[in-house]
Design brief:
Layout (H helix, E strand, L loop, with lengths): L3 H5 L5 H4 L2 H9 L8 E5 L5 H9 L4 E6 L10 E5 L5 H11 L2 E6 L5 H11 L3 E10 L22 H8 L22 E7 L2 E6 L14 H13 L1
Parallel strand pairs: 1-2, 1-4, 2-3, 4-5
Antiparallel strand pairs: 5-7, 6-7
The structure holds S-adenosylmethionine (SAM).
Length: 228
């Protein structure tokens, strides 16, 4: 059986050049024969879809691209549309049920990356993987990033860095803490050069999560927060 990299050598996707296939293989090798639903945003000439088609022999695969594609890939559905189009993303997701793997290799614009993640996260199944490629664009202003401000609001890298706090939300020691949408829903986030893997799932229950704090203790906690 050919490895992902070996299959990749047949298809000139830039996933080869950026070294992503070795990383992907680590996560995908145990999923290879399963019946998965896979969505990739960004089709270009269709090479990565052909790659996934050949690698995931039992999966349903679809792609989305803003440009119309005049080629057909057997057993792959290609949608035309914008990755910011919530209605379209919902429509695709409805047809597939939940996705097991979502890969964003689309516009690489920070705002679009964040929009798609926000829209599609609910359509990712528990234990599913959400991957975003080419995050070097987070350091390029024309993609909505910044070369100098590494904590720029709404840059893609800053979004995923902040998201990592959702893994530890139970430890936040803030008196008026309001749960964020992704808190407790993300098991882990793995960063590599220019690519991130977000694993959906519950983080391990923190040991004191169920301990009820009475009013007096809560008050003490608040005061100690302000006077420490
Ligand atoms: C890097 S290419 C995809 C490469 C492909 N995944 C591969 O590995 O062979 C990026 C693609 O994203 C598409 N794209 C750009 N903006 C988009 C958007 N807003 N929504 C959906 N697709 C978009 C482009 O038309 C282009 O085909």
């Amino acid at each position: 059986m050919l490895s992902l990299k070996e299959i990749g050598s047949k298809y000139p996707t830039n996933k080869n050049d950026y070294g992503f296939l070795d990383i992907y293989e680590n996560y995908f090798k145990n999923l290879r024969n399963k019946n998965l639903n896979i969505l990739e945003i960004g089709v270009d000439k269709g090479d990565s879809l052909r790659l996934w088609r050949e690698y995931f022999i039992n999966s349903r695969i679809c792609g989305l691209d803003i440009d119309k594609k005049d080629f057909v890939i057997q057993n792959v559905e290609i949608y035309q549309g914008d990755q910011n189009d919530k209605i379209l993303l919902n429509k695709i997701a409805k047809k597939y049920g939940k996705f097991d793997i979502i890969i964003d290799d689309g516009s690489h614009v920070s705002k679009h990356i964040i929009n798609s993640f926000n829209y599609l996260f609910d359509h990712l199944r528990q234990d599913g993987i959400y991957i975003v490629e080419d995050l070097q664009t987070s350091y390029i202003p024309r993609y909505g990033g910044s070369r100098i401000n590494l904590i720029k609001k709404n840059s893609s890298m800053n979004f995923f860095k902040s998201l990592s706090d959702s893994i530890n939300y139970e430890n936040f020691d803030r008196p008026f803490f309001k749960k964020h949408r992704f808190d407790g829903l993300i098991k882990s986030i793995h960063f590599y050069q220019n690519i991130v893997f977000v694993f959906k799932g519950q983080s391990a229950k923190y040991f004191h999560q169920n301990v009820k704090i009475n009013f007096l203790d809560r008050l003490k906690k608040m005061l100690s927060f302000f006077f420490r």
